[in-house]
# Entry
Amino acid sequence: MNKDLKPKDKKKFLEKLASEIKSCQKCGLCKTATQAVPGDGHYNADIMFIGEAPGFYEDRDGIPFVGRAGKLLDFLLHQINLARKDIYITNIVKHRPPENRDPTEAEILACQPFLKKQIEIIQPKVIATLGRYAMNYFLPNAKISASHGVEVIMPNYVLYPLYHPAAALRNGTVKKTLILDFLRLPEIVKKVESGEIEAKDQNNENNAQYELLK
# Structure
């Protein structure tokens, strides 16, 4: 994907990709879900949030993070003077797994090309993963308890693992940690913009993310 992609082209490509996601039948989830949930937000966002999979409300509405966890995410965005229209949010799996079970490796692999294309189109400065599954998509051996709130320099962007808002709703300590980590997001974006943090060369094939997505 061209690094100099114009915003109007980003919008067009993202809309086309959303149509492809909605008609996807690569795994069995499309048979049990109400609809696909491609993603939502700004096509030229500096921050891209990636969660695990749609839940009940997301499956119903076709929009990611609209349940209780989504309300907490909206609150956190407000704390850093952002709104949904300023960021882009999606999941590693685009259809809801039955009964909100964890997505399987096969289901994640089936959706991988879609997520790769979303990242290539939006070209975010920071990707904030929400929860263990989203983090492990990029960092297979990482532990969320040790990696949350720590910047990881990747090809073309900085990865920033966060606890999932749903986990924060179940655990007060996790919620406090998520809030503190979340408040650092504007600082990280500024570091990328200023060059204080610089993403690795995409051609570095030793990088785990490049190996995963190529």
Q: What stands out?
A: Confidence is low (pLDDT under 50) at residues 201-214. Residues 189 and 195 are 10 Å apart (CA to CA).
